[in-house]
Structure formats: C-alpha cells, structure tokens
User: What shape does this take?
Amino acid sequence: MKPVLRDPETDRLLDRVELIDSETGSHIGELDAACGMDGLRRNNHTMDTDLYELTMCAGYGALGKKDQLACFDLYYRKNPDNGGFCVCAGLQSVIEYIKNLRVYPDDVEYLKSLGLFSEEALRLLVDGIKFTGDVWAVPEGTVVFPNEPLIRVIAPIAEAQVLETTLLAIVGHQTLIATKAARLRLAAKGAPVVDFGTRRAHGLEAALYGARAAYIGGCVGTSNVRAGKLFGIPVRGTHAHSWVESFDDELESFRGFSKVFPDNCVLLVDTYETLEGVRRAIQVAQEMKKTGKKLTGIRIDSGDLAYYSKAARFLLDEAGFADVKILASSDLDEWLIHSLSEQGAKIDIWCVGTRLITSYQTPALGVVYKLMAADHGDGKLVPKIKISENPEKVTNPGVKKIVRFYNGSGHMIGDLLADADEPLPTGDPVRAHHPMYDYMKKTYRPPYKVREILVPVFLGGKQTYETPDLSQIRDHAALEIESLEPEYKRFSNPHIYKVSLSDTVYHNKKSLLGYYQEKNHRHLPQQ
Assistant: This one.
C-alpha cells in the first residue's frame, strides 16, 4: 500500500499539506500521507486482536456460516482482591472501537503474507469485519457482579466473533482499575484519593485509560496531564526529590518552588530527614504568609507514614498552619490506607500509584466472552451451553437480561438473570435459582423494586446510546456504591452478593445439561 494525498476539488495529488491554526494563522506542522494514515488509525483497533478471531471469522465465511445469528455475553467470573463487587468501566472505548472497525489495504497485505488465508477466505474475512448487529451493555459506573453479562452482543456470528479479544482487553482493564479506585475511596473514608500511577502503568495507553477509570471509581484527580486534557479530569502534582537535590540545600529548593508556584505550593519533605523537612516547609510557609500567600501542603513519600504524619501535623498546628494539608504516597493500597487510618495517621490526601494503576494484587480481571445462543438460519436464537468439569465454568445459556432487586431502603438485594423476553416482576414473589447448586434457591418477596441493568447501545449497527459526561458517570458510580449494604464493601470476607437464575434460564440450563449428558453417555464405550 502506498497512500497519497488528493485535493478533492482539483483531484491534484499532493506529497504533503501544511497544517495551520485558523484563528492565529500560525504554522502547526506538515502532514504527509503516512501521517494521514496514522490519523485515520487513531481510533481503529481492528488489528489489535488475537489471530484466532480472524481465522474463525474467515472460517465462518468459507463454510457459509458468516450470517448465522449469534449471541455472545461478556462477563467475569470472580471479583478482584477477593472483594464483593466491581465497578463497570470501558463502554466509551467499546463504542469508539465498534464505530471504527475497518481493515485497510496494508492490513490485507499483511494477513495475505502469513500464508494462512486463501484469496477467497481473505475476501470473506475482510467483508465480515463490520458491525450491523445489536449491543446491550451495563452503563459505566454501575456496580456489577460475577457471571452476569456486562455486554451482550447479537449479530451475524463473524461480526460478533471478531469483537471478542478487543472487548475483553478494554472492559477487563478499565473495570479492574475503576474497582480498585472505588475500594481505595472506601478505605480513605471520605479523604481525597489521587491517581499518581502513570509512570508505573503497563504502557501509556493503560495509564491514560486507567486514569479515566480511576476517576470513575472515585479518585478526585490524576497526575496524568493527557488524561486531564482529553477527559477533563483535574490534574494534580507537586515536585520530585530531584528538585530538592538539584539545590545546595533543602530550604533553598523550597523557597524556589514557592516563588515559582505561590498559589499551588506543595513541598516534598522527605528527601533527607522528614521532620527537618517539615520544619523548613514551615519556615517557607511563614515567609509566604508575609507576602499574602499560603503553603498548600506537604507530601511525605517514605518512612512510617503514621508516625511522620502525626508528628508533622503537630508541628504545623503548633506553628499556626492547621490548614496546610498533609499528602502521603509510598506504595499505598486500600489495606495500608485502612491500617494507617486505624493508627490515627493525620493524612488529608492519599496519592496512590503502582497499586492502583496496575491493580497490583490482582493484575487482571478474568473476563470471558462466550456464545450463549445461535440460530439455524431462521433468525430464532436457540440457547447454547459450554460444559465443564469445573461448575463455575458452565455457562448460563440463552439471551439474558439482568434484573436488579432493591429493598425498601433503596439498597441492592440481588440480581436475577432472566430471559430477555421475560416481563419484569411487578410485585409477586419471584423464585431465584443458584447457578450451580440445585438445592440453593431463594424467593424475592414484596415489597421490592426492580430495575433492568442492560441498556441498548447499538441497534442494527447504529449507535443509539449517548454516553454521559465523565462527571455524571463518576456521580453514578458513587450512588451505586452507596446503594450497596456495608457487608458487601468490607475488604475481609465480604458477603457474597446473589446473582441467580430465573425459572426460564434455570430450566434451559438443566435441559441442555441433561441433553448433552445423555448424548455423551450413549457414545461411551461399553465396559
């Protein structure tokens, strides 16, 4: 492939074009065709996939199955960090991904070079990479639980299949980080938590979208400047130890920083000896006060954070600077924040990096994308099941929706996986079946309220869902977490939130299990 630029009015071919600011006329830069291709690809992640998605897509086409209607569910099996819930995130990225599905000529050239695809299979593959189906999804910021569909895709099977890897990567990562941020916010008990994780993230894109997910989960800001620019997240930052070390003494470095940033001066006090650093920060605060300025805060990045924060608070208060905030960093997570709070640490703002942006203790969410139903050419979806010797991996078949039950106080009391065509409960008792154990059943009795969680995002390949502002998503997440009873939010042995099956889904599952058990039994060799 050799792209060139063409003037659409004159048909003249151009080597490059100049980019200028229309408001000022100033020169921004020059673009050639390669830069233009890079721009077109900016939101295109079609090739960010596993090879087997493409081989299956080509195979469906070669066998005349590419138009077979199928339903896939994206869900996860276990809450991270042995927690009680997750906060769903990533839908905006999913929407952009689906809208920008496209294979470019050089993609075709590369796939051809692999020697895997015949000319016909490659043509069918390229034709199949588009989206004309339906997507239903859980809105970002919604609290979710294992084994319920965060995304439901209904489309011709080749179109639905090719989405798998990228959807899993997007939703798994962003949901994981949003959940970690929510847990940190709970541990901080109302004190602000700031994302400081960019430098420790698994790549720049993970840092960028991790910052967005962390903001959804409850962080008040981020150190990531690009995330601030693109998403409107408040940006926060102080200075590093290198700033202090570059001066002949610590006091000189503090004075220099306060001179340059008098309205947002936070001083890092642990480069040498922490309490001496606090005393020097107080000296600078006194000097700033004489000029009508205030020291905003100090940050402690090492040592015993409980001891040093209490000692620093005493020194600051004694000097008349009770309004100066104490920030803490240094490999923080929810358990350490909780422990420090229990020890009476005087920390006003928690700055969390590595263990937030990598979800350090659980670095991956076990998301899966499973076929739940398919038709036989007549457009009627028939439930399908994946069977395993591990009961947790047996799928819940059919096209399903999530019905969430609330008690009179507005707290969540359980979710029901129901057939998509089942009417919502209207006040009668509702029987719910455990997904794995037949003897475990429960009944939702009135009074209760119900809400369907999945919403339409694409219908017939067209986007129908308008993504809320990020601040609205964040507010929604806070309300969702508030509607969870405290026992689901504790860090040690949280109560297990019930995700059950309706009568219809339960009987579909039992019927398919019985069918395949009988079918396999008939084919076993005689002893």
Q: What stands out?
A: The longest strand covers residues 69-76.
